[in-house]
Amino acid sequence: MNNDSFFSGFNSISAKTWEEKINADLKGADYSETLIWESPEGIPVHPFYQSDDQKDVFKIEKTSKTWLICQSITVQNDAVANAQSKEAIKKGAESLHFIITSEKTKIEVLLEGINTKTIQIYFEFQCFSIALYESIISFTSDVKDKIHLSIDPIGHLARTGNWFNSFDKDIEVPEAILKVNTETLCVDVSVYQNAGANILQQLTYALSHANEYLNMLPGKQATRKMYFKVAVGTNYFFEIAKLRALRMLWCILAKAYNIEEECHIIAVPTRRNKTLYDYNTNLLRSTTECMSAVLGGADTVCNVAYDAIYKKDNEFGTRISLNQLLLLKNESYFDKVNNAADGAYYIERLTHQLAEKALGHFKSIEQKGGFLKRLKQGNIQEEIKESALKEQERFNQGEDVLVGTNKYVNETDKMNENIELYPFIKTNRSKTAVEPIMGKRLAELIELKRLSDE
Question: How confident is the model at residue 1 (pLDDT cuts 50, 70, 90)?
Fold first, then answer.
């Protein structure tokens, strides 16, 4: 059916007409003060949007393919991790995210019996080993389009405060490996979100972080894709717009370097809003965050267990986290439409506004010497602290709600005997090259007090 003929019987309504009707219904209340609110990113949110809000909005087409369900596995024993991987695949995982903790990891043991032609593999490294990187590339040479090496020395510096070795040696690795595997460089944006950066800051730092790699690596012209790891927060529509804006910004940057415009996004739920008490509410939070990730166009979604902040990996928590994604894909049909948010005036407008503001801030960082210089000077850390403090104050005052923690609290809930992992921020007292950007949950102070009172 032709859309023009379908809508021909309806008169178009201007924004002015809508506002006049709303003002009449408000009966004297101020339209701007009553119905328009401003996000932490400084974006005014209106009560309605229409087609005029899509004018001059830059469009980007995502490759037509469905999103993948991913299972994250921390590798401490190669054979155990291999068994966990096979079990996850058996239960529905379509990709695997390995967190490598030791340079002694044997890739042939880890991947034994796993069909790497059909299962996409992500490797995230907590260690530095050229030999390990090379062994992965060698072992998976026939399926390199299915393999992502998450080599992110700048992200490691931001998160820990130190290079693995030194700037020159850390950067030398991706330069050498890019020659044989272009699915190598990762920008870990999750470190900024989990520390309290707002959405605008996350997008700005993601672009600046990526730009550092493109500037410093001679092999950049061979780069097919930049791989972004993004933590998704609780602001549903803004998070959808965030992922869409990230693709848009990467497209703009990639065009400037004349490289492949497609970026690859793996999304994970944030840790910042997860709670120790009334922990079952974490299931609801991570579900809506995964929904935002899918609708925002993530290539891969990797959920976290509802009890991950305080409990070691366990079969039940892992199974439930995987089932959440299986339900979204197989029962809620979140895989049936590509770019489902296209045409939603509100989301399209948010995407454009976030991208436009982030691009302006990115240019400002570049004019001041670039991301690394600003990180070494502590400017990035101060900006994130300021944003985190504002969010913490909103939470403390009850403006931002975490059900079960600062509203509708179950006073009889006890947790002291259930804690297997330390769920609070760990202060790094050792000297570092730069101040580390450390993740912190909003509920930590309340939880510490409740634990001491048990």
Answer: very low
